[in-house]
Amino acid sequence: MKKLLWLFLLLPILTTAQDSIRVDMSTPHATVYTHLYFLQSDSYEPKKAAKTILGLSEEKAIEKAIKIKQVLDGKGLYVDMNRVPTNANYKDTIGYSSYYRYVLFPERMPQIYVEKIGDNWYYSTETINKIESLYKSVYPWYIQKLQNIIPLSGHKKIMNIELWKIIGLLILFVLAYIIFLIVKRIAFFILLKLQQQITKNTNLEVNKVIKKLAHPISLLVALSFIDKAFPSLQFGLTTNTWVFLALNIAETVFWIYVFLKLVKVVMRIYGEFTERTHGRLDDQLVPILHSFLTGVVIVVGILRLLVLFGVDTTTMIAGATIGGLAFALASQDTVKNLIGTIMIFLDKPFHIDDWIEAGEVVGTVERVGFRSTQVRAADTSIYQIPNSRLSELVINNKGLRLFRRYNTNLGLRYDTPPELIEAFVKGVREIIIAHPETRSDSYNVEFTGFGDSALLVMVNVYFKSLAWGVEQSSKHRLHIAIVKLAKELGVDFAFPSTTVTIENFPEKKGLNPKYDINQERIDTVIATVVSDFNKENPNETVS
């Protein structure tokens, strides 16, 4: 009898102690556990779960608490209690401010979170205010009506699943497939119109890529429809968790595919644009940008997949940043070359196929890579110049010249009469004017001085073509015409020599050549040489 009396006396105390242990809101972990524990089927006490909501009547608090759990269950959001912090002063740092709050699912449901008010943790005011709209988005208005019209036979179970849910699932997939077909046609039509507006043509290769891009876009719309409508079937938390995990994985994979195809389309359009520009450095930028953007899409996609599997990417990125810093310090040359590459593409000191002089290297730019630039010299050998060094060198870009300048001196014999010097200079000028590859408005042919063994006639001309081969061909034709002119005029080119002169040598004639300075003959020779030069190029315009 005494034992029974003691039991009646201790029962209220034990009950109070049990409540004080279970109804605990001292930490985020305790509050979330209290809310979810007292809404389980085997421990269903909604009044105790409602204590996690502050400022409402008991009836309203119970309604809100139940709806919070139903929203989480409907979206398949399983709360892993091992991840919920047990620190009573836990701070969630966002931006430049920090708050005493914990967001259960920051990626998929950031509106639901607990916050510290006084000494206890409760569901936030924002969560309470938004739970109605969240509930309606997860369980639309037609759900209650469907529940009312489902006959009793619809609640029969097949493989532990109610019949109406199986029928609803089939209808859901049929509607998703119809939406997929409709959106695919619309997406392809819109993308094709955009491509034609941007590129102004109907490139078949781009059309194929766009058609492939329309396919995953329509799949994403269909998945979004399933994601929106599936909670209406009211499957359990476990089923919803796995279904939404599969949907999110599929959605992420499709988004990766869409962005990879989008990168391909953009790079193809950009490639067509660069083909119409004069410089070819942009052409080299296309594959580099394509590789870079593809890498970014894949890395971001993998991080998104890791988040779905519960991996803390913040910690991983922080670790990768520290490791990346250490790696960068260990490979400073690689980083410097990468920065040099960026500077080359920003400044554009040269283009592909430009002839440049960079320090001791002279040749044609063939390729600009991430780390180095290839320059092919005149002897066809390849120079591999690190971009960090190339970005610091003084670069003489002869490929950006407006014209190719050619300057030389022609040496005439010292005994050439002034009349023939004038005639020779005049004739060379006429040849330059008649030459189709030289600028007739900018040249110099002058008797400029006295050399050690010759009278110097400067010839300064500008060739129109920037191609090295065309320049050499133009020089050849100019030189041949000048040699013919000198021969017809009777003018000799000088070469280093020593002459001994004996003024009085009995019965001997001097060795000096006899020059014909008849003006009429000179004019005829110049006209004939220039005429012959023009006849050699009948199809070319004289400028």
Q: What would you note in describing this structure?
A:
- The protein has a 5-stranded antiparallel beta sheet. It has a 3-stranded antiparallel beta sheet with strand order 3-4-5, sandwiched between helices. The chain has a 3-stranded antiparallel beta sheet with strand order 13-15-14.
- It has helices at residues 2-22, 28-37, 46-49, 58-74, 125-138, 142-149, 163-199, 204-229, 237-275, 281-308, 313-330, 332-347, 387-390, 418-434, 468-489, 519-535; strands at residues 92-94, 97-99, 101-105, 109-117, 120-123, 157-158, 161-162, 355-358, 361-368, 372-376, 382-386, 395-397, 404-412, 444-450, 455-463.
- The protein folds into 4 domains: 20-138, no CATH class; 157-330, no CATH class; 332-400, SH3 type barrels; 404-535, 2-Layer Sandwich (Alpha-Beta Plaits), CATH 3.30.70.100.
- It is of the alpha+beta class.
- The protein contains 16 helices and 15 strands.
- Helix 14 packs antiparallel against helix 15 (468-489) and helix 15 runs antiparallel to helix 16 (519-535).
- The protein is elongated and about 130 Å long.
- The model is unreliable at 1-21 (pLDDT under 50).
- A hairpin with a 2-residue loop joins strand 4 (109-117) and strand 5.
- Pfam families: MS_channel_2nd, MS_channel_3rd.
